Amino acid sequence: MKTQVAIVGGGPAGSLLALLLHQQGIDSIVVERQSRNYVLGRIRAGVLEWTSVEVLRDAGLSDRLDIEGHVHNSIKMGWRGESVMSIDVARLAGKPMMSYGQTMIQEDLYAAGDAVDANFIFEADEVQIHDVRTDAPWITFKSSGETVRIDCDVVAGCDGFHGVSRTVIPDSAKTEYEKSYPFGWLGVLSETPPLPTLLYANHENGFALCSQRNEMLSRYYVQCSLEDTVEQWSDDRFWDELLTRVPNSEASQIVTGPSIEKSIAPLRSYVVEPLQWGRLFLAGDAAHIVPPTGAKGLNLAIADVHYLSLALAAHYQGDPKLLEAYSATALRRVWSSVRFSWYMTALMHRFPEQTEFDQRAQEEDLIYLAGSTAAQTSLAEQYVGLDL
Ligand code: FAS
Ligand code: PHB
Fold first, then answer.
1. For the segment 359-388, what is each residue's pLDDT rounded down to a tens digit?
2. How far apart are CA 110 and CA 122, in angstroms?
3. Residue-by-residue DSSP string for 181-237
4. Is 253 helix (H, G, I), strand (E, B) or coil?
5. Catalytic residue at 383?
6. Is residue 206 within 8 Å of residue 184, measured between CB atoms?
7. Which helix (H) or strand (E) element contains residue 263?
8. Catalytic pick from 22, 72, 76, 349?
9. Distance (Å, rounded) from C-alpha 28 to C-alpha 7?
10. What is the DSSP string of 42-87?
11. How confident is the model at residue 386, as a pLDDT?
12. pTM of the predicted structure, to 2 decimals
């Protein structure tokens, strides 16, 4: 097979890139390891920065989002199970954000791909990437036992943190920055009405987060041990812990109910530099990972792909400059979001070796935030995201 851009990975980054390239008249093939339904079955991100909404709108991919997405002008932050502040991010940072689940985005992207007959190949095994240091790279994969080769001009590595594309860059040519956190997030979906506002809670028992997918689908998280299993967290234990960690005034509004999905995710900060190696360009989780505390992972993937699609369009129009600068351009926003996600994680979580002094210092940080417009503005402009 032959195409202009071979895209490895059919998650949000890979499928959005294919659609943005199509709109620029650039041909691509997406090669995804899992089945289409497996990808659609993942429960992940829930909050879109306004720049992400605008990228999807500009690409004509926001029909359902504009109906079912929930615009938020503020977030709440609580501490000690009793105090809570509301931060008016829209007023302080000049733009809101939106609750709209990644699962729905993925459905919208695949539907848009179907509408333009995009070439998405699922259940592609053993993807290998070749000759990226030449102007004629190619990839191979196995499908129904057959080995398939795709010749291309460029390979986009959109295959997530555990993908193959990042391994193509030799260790001698890349720098990896990594921080693992000594806890995880237990996430629960319940068919109950959510709190109207996203709520991040610091508590001596650990962090908690109240979010939503729609007016009858709530998404909640509690910090848990990395040794925990979902089997150790009955619904009763989860709700008891969530209602303990959340400020009383908010906890009294939470409607509990049976969980319909329960999973534990580890937290990690990771960035690889550079994001390009010859004709290979990394985007999304293949290039970086953030703890979800800052709601940045999916938004970074969208920003990377926005930059890469513009750079590839310029390249095919004869201007190589944007593509040569892709890594530096994308990394500017990546590092800003990586730092903010680390800051929010350090502020809101209970670390195993944490002392009472550390707990009190975190609470004092939140008390200062509650009383300072300057501090709230700083947090707000980072939470809603930098302009593209
Ligand atoms: P993805 O990992 O989504 O997609 C990569 C795709 O590549 C996958 O479909 C995979 O099957 C495929 N692939 C992998 N290896 C391959 C290979 N060798 N060949 C072919 N295909 C291959 N972000 C938030 O903002 N908020 C959250 O609450 C949040 N929660 C998360 C929970 C979990 C459990 C995880 C893992 C991530 C979470 N994230 C969250 C981050 C998440 O939303 C990512 O940022 C987002 O999925 C990034 O999209 P992609 O870069 O496309 O990577
Ligand atoms: C979610 O709705 O899944 C969500 C919201 C905000 C976060 C992380 C996850 O910071």
1. 999 999 999 999 999 999 999 999 999 899
2. 12
3. EEEEEEEEEESSPPPSSEEEEE-TT--EEEEEEETTEEEEEEEE-TT--GGG--HHH
4. coil
5. yes
6. no
7. strand 259-273
8. 72
9. 7
10. -----EEEHHHHHHHHHTT--HHHHHH-EEES-EEEEETTTEEEEE
11. 87
12. 0.96
Q: Work out which ligand 1 atom sits closest to the CA atom of 285.
A: 51
pLDDT at site 155: 98
Rounded CA separation 240/251 (Å): 10
Residue 258 is a catalytic residue: no
Q: What is residue 225's predicted lDDT score, i.e. its pLDDT?
A: 98
- How would you write 87-152 as a 3-class SS string? ECHHHHHCCCEEECCHHHHHHHHHHHHHHCCCEEECCCEEEEEECCCCCCCEEEEEECCEEEEEEC
- In this structure, what token pair is assigned to residue 21? 């390239």
The question of whether 368 is a catalytic residue gets the answer no
On whether both 185 and 246 belong to a single domain, the answer is yes
Ligand 2 residue neighbourhood (C-beta within 6 Å): 45-47, 198, 209, 211, 219, 292-293, 295
Whether the CB-CB separation of 259 and 190 falls below 8 Å is answered with: yes
Q: CB-based burial of residue 135 (10 Å sphere; 0-12 exposed, 13-18 middle, 19+ buried)?
A: exposed
Residues of the chain whose pLDDT is less than 70?
none
Q: Which atom of ligand 1 is nearest to the CA of 286?
A: 51
Sheet order of strands, 280-282 included: 119-121, 28-31, 5-8, 154-157, 280-282, 276-277
**185 part of a folded domain:** yes
Q: Is 90 part of a structural domain of the chain?
A: no
Number of domains making up the chain:
2
Instruction: Give the mutation target among 87, 217, 221, 264 for probing the ligand 2 site: most ligand atoms within 8 A of CB.
Output: 221
**What's the chain's Rg over C-alpha atoms?**
21
CATH of the domain at 247: 3.30.9.10
pLDDT per position as a tens digit, 267-308: 999 999 999 999 999 999 999 999 999 999 999 999 999 999
Active site residue 296: yes
Q: Under DSSP, is residue 25 helix (H, G, I), strand (E, B) or coil?
A: coil
Write the single-letter amino acid at 307: Y
What residues form DSSP beta bridges with 86?
Answer: 76
Asked, for residue 242, whether it belongs to a domain, the answer is yes
The atom number, within ligand 2, closest to the CA of 211 reads 2
Tokens 């848009």: give the residue: 112
- 219/361 same-domain check: yes
- Whole-angstrom Cα distance, residue 24 to residue 205? 50
**Of 284, 292, 264, which Cα lies nearest the Cα of 383?**
292
